[in-house]
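Table 4 source record.
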Amino acid sequence: MQFELIYWSLKDQKLSGHFDIFGIMNAFEHYKQSQLFYILKKECEAMTKNNLRDEFPKNIKETLAKRVSYFCSNPKCRKMTIGPHTDANKSVSVGVAAHISAASPGGPRYDATLTSSDRKSIKNGIWLCQNCGREVDIDEIRFTKSILEAWKREAESLVVKKTIEEKYKSSKKVISKIQDIEEMYEYFNEYYIANFDHFFSFNDAMVSLRKHYYLHSPIMTQINTLNELISKVLEEFRKIKLDINPKTSKLIKKYLDTLKFTYEDDGIGFYNNRLERFFENMIDTKITRIQIIKELSNCI
């Protein structure tokens, strides 16, 4: 009965992660002939082996995976190691946080000079798919420490490169649409010159606009098209502004800010000075807009 109590004590200690192997083994000295003694011995050996392994903490594993965007770090593999589970609340992972230098004595590429903290640090880890993780541990002569470290550097550099490329593509797309906006402004500028440039002042021109508004009202359709394009650019810019080059982001914001203006509308159709304010803003911001466009062109 005492033997069984000690045995189950060992099992409880194993589950809790805290155990006194040698103390328990000494307690079993008088039971060497018992079959349970050999079961206990195997339990202790397994626990000792596991206890000596310097495993990566959960946060280290997650960071290793994220630093390579969950792709296997083997340059000849690059397999995606995560995907959807049939259960909408779960995901499936086929990746492993592998040790460059083994987690315990006797393992592949074990380095006795490393401390326990070194072995389970992110510096000693590499993210691989399960197949590649198994392969590098089976053939440690072929897959040396220097090779795995080179894989890791290359995989992380590749993610950085792709991230920069995506940022470049996103900013280039927005800048291209801003150039489309400016082309539309050039059309409106030509319209203003053709219809109002002969007036002595802007105020005189706007008096004429109000007097003959019905003649110019069709242009509001093009202005509405312009506003739709501006809204799309604003939406795209909000999505990428924190990811693109800060200088580029600042220039885009500055340009979009120049397009803002206020106008008065009585809401019942008797008074609306939107077209007047549009032309006024177009003229006042022309030089600024052109300068910003030139600077943005250098960012592409």
